[in-house]
Design goal:
CATH class of one domain: Mainly Beta
CATH topology of one domain: Immunoglobulin-like
Number of strands: 7
Oligomer: single chain
Largest sheet: 4 strands, antiparallel
Shape: elongated
Distance between the termini: 117 Å
Length: 172
């Protein structure tokens, strides 16, 4: 007959740290409300966002599944881009229905992003398709990198600036 040896719970952990963890878990339960009485929290629904950058623009993608185009609002004020809206719960039909599991977040959301000064806010465009909001943020021409060629000899702005100084020095 083969016997199995059970390892005691506390062999790998210190007794005091485990005791404190259990106490914390016990008291954390008092701070949370039952799911039927959840208080409104703006952070409960915060859509995920990706931002990519190219040489001439930024592209922001925000996941907003289940929303309609009319439920989304986008504002740009003083280099602050704000995406807001509301996801409405369409599932509550009859009073006799009860949720067995409630994992989706519903309600009002608002995300704000500080834009760099290199964005042309008048040319920002947005598109919403298949639950993804894409916002095109073009850069100003001055913010785009530009190669400057070194000149030699006469001509250009330096001829006007320095040429006139040489002429005045030669006449003196």
């Amino acid at each position: 007959m083969r016997t199995t040896l059970l390892t005691p719970y506390f062999t790998n952990r210190a007794l005091t740290s485990t005791l404190w963890n259990e106490m914390d878990r016990f008291f954390d339960g008092f701070n949370s409300l039952p799911t039927s009485q959840v208080a409104y929290d703006e952070r409960a629904f915060s859509p995920q966002c990706d931002i990519t950058e190219t040489e001439d623009h930024y592209l922001m993608s925000v996941d907003l599944p289940g929303l309609k185009k009319d439920d989304i609002k986008i504002d740009v004020v003083n280099n602050l881009l704000t995406v807001s809206g509301e996801r409405k719960n369409q599932g509550l039909g009859e009073k006799s229905e009860r949720y067995q599991r409630y994992e989706r977040n519903y309600g009002f959301f608002k995300r704000s992003f500080t834009l760099p000064t290199s964005i042309e806010s008048q040319k920002v465009e947005a598109r919403y398709e298949d639950g993804v909001l894409e916002i095109y943020l073009p850069k100003t021409p001055t913010s785009k990198p530009r190669h400057i060629e070194v000149q030699s000899g006469k001509g250009g702005v330096f001829e006007r600036l320095l040429g006139s100084k040489k002429d005045t020095q030669d006449t003196q």
